[in-house]
């Protein structure tokens, strides 16, 4: 091969290399997405899209694009679009959850998420505030308490947040108005903005209302005609409360039934833990609380047919209670009847017998 | 006749004056009776107290005030007496009367005796004056409110009186939930038996508080069968005072699996949880054993009857 031909080959090879480099450079410009030092869009497209329902077939459907947002973020009472690009595949921003206080609770409120048409596998985070998200912004944690931070574990599905029944967020302050809002996400890079806030709902104060039907027990005169017995008198307790763990009523006496001359009618031998069917003489009580706390079984008074004697030591014996929990429905005008039984005999000295019965009610803590 | 007539008239006037005096006296007596007796006596005792549970933060050297709203819901005037009592820190029975609590010494009531008109409301101001050298901790007491009932010197029948206790839960020191979680122990999280004949199983556990103040324990139990979906149940919340523990029992849902794992997460607040787990097997082993025995007998009777027959004959000496 002569030198001339060799030069021609070299020139052609050079041209080929230059063209190839140029082509490669152009190709990279065509196939790479817009990028900066920090990001690169892997996929993107152009076009205004459309809402033409005819743009589909049995195999595909064009996602409609109503048009670009000229400025601001579209919103209504219930929805608000996220800032920046509006993703056609992004979840709906959850509408305002429903917040309520069904049992006038003092430390908890009930919330029900609003899915806003999102799929069942979408997860939600919930934010809570007592100033409508001006400066107090906290989060409902996965354990339904309130925390300062939001973690992945605090994103739960609609079902796991309680579904349509909702759930209670606890450890709230009493007498305080709260607001909640939610955001949704599914997989990565799909999280919505916070949705609109719920209406403000207030917690209450803890309260207890207690009524005793009377302030004395007027027993019949104990005579041979009534076999020295009266079991017709009773006291009714009526209680209303929103205390979460309910309440307990204790009863005790200051002394046995006694005359001014110190004659006594002794306390009945049955005890609160082991009440018995009445037999013999004494002064005792029974309760119709069939789900009574304490020891000895919940229906140990057999619906008010077994009796125990009063004790004198504090706080006394449990005679009525409701352990709650008070969450959805408050305890309202709950009645229990404590019935008394006094029985003497012909050897019991005549006289006026009396003592003081003390009923103490406390919220269960 | 005329004189007799005037005497008659004079008598009538005297009687009239006497009756008038009697009416005035009766009216006065009724008024006095209303003022003194009925003010402190009511057939029905009906009160509403709020707040019934007060959770407060105390600062050493500062005063903290609680306003207890007391409402008389009965149709008669009611005298109310307020007193402070300790709160039992050691038993599950909430409180006993007059148990020593340092908080009671810091607490005063502005007016411990008040009279409430029918269907009226008043506030009772409770002030806690925390000493400068008060230590970090949980402090507890109960404010008892009692209607004053006319207790005669020689009553003719048993008298019934009532007391309503309003609980005060006070804390000195900042509660840190992460630290709290480290001071809370789950004890004895286990089923009634690890191998059960049939479901449901009864799980029990207690939670111990070694932190300086009280907290609310909120247990979640998740039952995870070997095959199938796990199920989480939120149990009743309970307050636990420092140095004490409280127990729970839980009946698991019915299931058809054999092996179950039970996970317990006790939330102490702010997303902090204390964890424990256990397991149990539901296997009708008695039924299976009985079935094996029956099958064994059946096998022996059908396939080994000749040998059994021979053995019996040998035993009976007929061979």
Walk me through this protein's architecture.
- The complex is a heterodimer of chains A (365) and B (319).
- Chain A has two domains: 98-202, Immunoglobulins (Immunoglobulin-like); 208-363, no CATH class.
- In chain A, strand 14 and strand 15 (264-265) form a beta hairpin.
- Chain A is mainly beta and 365 residues long.
- Chain A has one helix at 3-31; strands at residues 98-100, 109-112, 123-129, 138-140, 146-147, 156-157, 167-169, 177-185, 201-202, 208-212, 229-230, 234-241, 247-253, 257-258, 264-265, 276-277, 282-287, 306-309, 317-322, 331-343, 356-363.
- In chain A, strands 10, 11, 12, 16, 17, 18 and 20 form a seven-stranded antiparallel beta sheet that branches. In chain A, strands 3, 4, 5, 6, 8 and 9 form a six-stranded antiparallel beta sheet that branches. Chain A has a three-stranded antiparallel beta sheet with strand order 1-2-7, with no helix packed on it.
- Chain A contains one helix and 21 strands.
- By secondary structure, chain B is of the alpha+beta class.
- Chain B folds into four domains: 2-39; 42-174, Immunoglobulins (Immunoglobulin-like, Sandwich), CATH 2.60.40.10; 178-282, Sandwich (Immunoglobulin-like); 285-316.
- Chain B contains five helices and 18 strands.
- Chain B has helices spanning 2-37, 102-106, 177-182, 285-303, 305-316; strands at residues 45-50, 53-58, 63-72, 78-86, 107-109, 113-116, 121-129, 137-148, 159-172, 184-191, 195-196, 202-209, 215-225, 231-234, 238-240, 245-251, 259-269, 272-282.
- In chain B, strand 17 (259-269) and strand 18 (272-282) form a beta hairpin.
- The longest helix of chain B is centred in the N-terminal third of the chain and has 36 residues, at 2-37.
- Residues 22-42 and 88-98 of chain B have low confidence and may be disordered.
- At the A-B interface, strand 5, strand 10, strand 12 and strand 21 of A face strand 1, strand 8, strand 9, strand 13 and strand 17 of B.
């Amino acid at each position: 091969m002569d030198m001339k031909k060799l030069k021609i080959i070299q020139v052609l090879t050079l041209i080929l290399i230059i063209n190839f480099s140029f082509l490669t450079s152009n190709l990279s410009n065509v196939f790479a997405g817009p990028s900066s030092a920090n990001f690169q869009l892997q996929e993107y497209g152009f076009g205004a899209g459309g809402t033409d329902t005819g743009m589909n077939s049995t195999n595909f459907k064009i996602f409609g694009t109503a048009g670009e947002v000229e400025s601001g973020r579209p919103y209504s009472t219930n929805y608000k679009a996220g800032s920046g690009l509006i993703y056609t595949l992004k979840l709906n921003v959850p509408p305002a959850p429903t917040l309520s206080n069904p049992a006038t609770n003092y430390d908890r409120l009930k919330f029900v998420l609003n899915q806003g048409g999102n799929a069942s596998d979408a997860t939600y985070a919930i934010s809570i505030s007592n100033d409508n998200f001006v400066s107090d912004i906290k989060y409902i944690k996965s354990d339904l308490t309130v925390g300062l931070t939001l973690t992945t574990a605090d994103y739960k599905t609609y079902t796991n947040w309680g579904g349509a029944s909702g759930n209670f967020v606890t450890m709230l302050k009493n007498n305080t108005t709260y607001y909640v809002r939610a955001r949704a996400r599914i997989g990565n890079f799909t999280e919505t903005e916070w949705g609109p806030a719920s209406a403000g709902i207030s917690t209450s104060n803890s309260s207890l209302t207690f009524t005793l039907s009377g302030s004395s027990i007027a027993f019949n005169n104990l005579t041979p005609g009534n076999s020295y017995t009266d079991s017709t008198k009773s006291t009714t307790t009526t209680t209303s409360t929103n205390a979460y763990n309910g309440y307990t009523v204790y009863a005790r006496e200051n002394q046995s039934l006694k005359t001014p001359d110190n004659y006594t009618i002794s306390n009945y031998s049955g005890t609160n833990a082991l009440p018995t069917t009445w037999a013999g003489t004494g002064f005792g009580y029974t309760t119709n609380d069939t789900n009574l706390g304490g020891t000895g079984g919940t229906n140990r008074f057999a619906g008010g047919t077994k009796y125990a004697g009063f004790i004198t030591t504090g706080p006394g014996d449990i005679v009525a209670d409701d352990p709650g929990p008070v969450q959805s429905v408050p305890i309202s005008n709950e009645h229990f009847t404590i019935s008394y039984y006094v029985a003497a005999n012909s050897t019991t000295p005549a006289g006026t017998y009396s003592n003081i019965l003390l009923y103490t009610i406390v919220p269960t803590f | 006749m005329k004189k007799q007539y005037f005497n008659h008239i004079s008598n009538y006037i005297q009687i009239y004056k006497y009756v008038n005096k009697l009416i005035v006296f009766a009216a006065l007596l009724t008024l006095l009776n209303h003022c003194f007796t009925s003010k402190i006596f009511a057939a029905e005792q009906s009160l509403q107290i709020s707040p019934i549970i007060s959770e407060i933060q105390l600062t050493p050297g500062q005063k903290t005030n609680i306003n207890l709203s007391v409402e008389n819901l009965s149709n008669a005037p009611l005298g109310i007496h307020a007193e402070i009592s300790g709160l039992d820190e050691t038993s599950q029975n909430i409180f006993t009367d007059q148990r020593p609590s340092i908080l009671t010494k810091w607490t005063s009531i502005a007016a411990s005796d008040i009279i409430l008109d029918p269907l009226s409301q008043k506030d009772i101001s409770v002030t806690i004056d925390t000493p400068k050298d008060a230590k970090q901790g949980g402090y507890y007491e109960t404010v008892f409110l009692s209607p004053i009932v006319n207790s005669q010197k020689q009553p003719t029948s048993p008298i019934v009186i009532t007391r309503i206790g309003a609980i005060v839960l006070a804390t000195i020191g900042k509660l840190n939930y992460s630290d709290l979680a480290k001071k809370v122990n789950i004890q004895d999280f286990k089923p009634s038996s690890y191998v059960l004949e049939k479901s449901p199983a009864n799980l029990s556990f207690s939670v111990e508080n070694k932190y300086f103040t009280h907290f609310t324990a909120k247990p979640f139990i998740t039952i995870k069968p070997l095959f199938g979906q796990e199920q989480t149940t939120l149990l009743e919340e309970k307050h636990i005072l420092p140095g004490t523990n409280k127990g729970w029992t839980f009946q698991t849902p019915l299931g058809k699996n054999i092996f179950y794992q039970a996970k317990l997460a006790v939330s102490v607040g702010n997303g902090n949880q204390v964890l424990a787990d256990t397991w149990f097997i539901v296997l009708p082993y008695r039924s299976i054993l009985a079935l094996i025995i029956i099958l064994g007998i059946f096998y022996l009777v059908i396939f080994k009857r000749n040998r059994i027959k021979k053995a019996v004959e040998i035993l009976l000496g007929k061979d």
